[in-house]
Design goal:
By secondary structure, the chain is mostly helical. It contains 2 helices and no strands.
Length: 55
Amino acid sequence: MKFKYPDAVLLVFAKAPVAGTVNTRLIPDIGVEAATELQSELVHSRLSALKASEL
């Protein structure tokens, strides 16, 4: 695969999906487990999108 910017470096800042510490504003509505799962899915989704991009 040939990249458009072969010397590019990406930094991804994300909170680890630790129960009770992520998406805390959503916890009252969806619960701790769902908020943690959501964080995990969001991080994995972003990393998959970056991996598939042709930067």
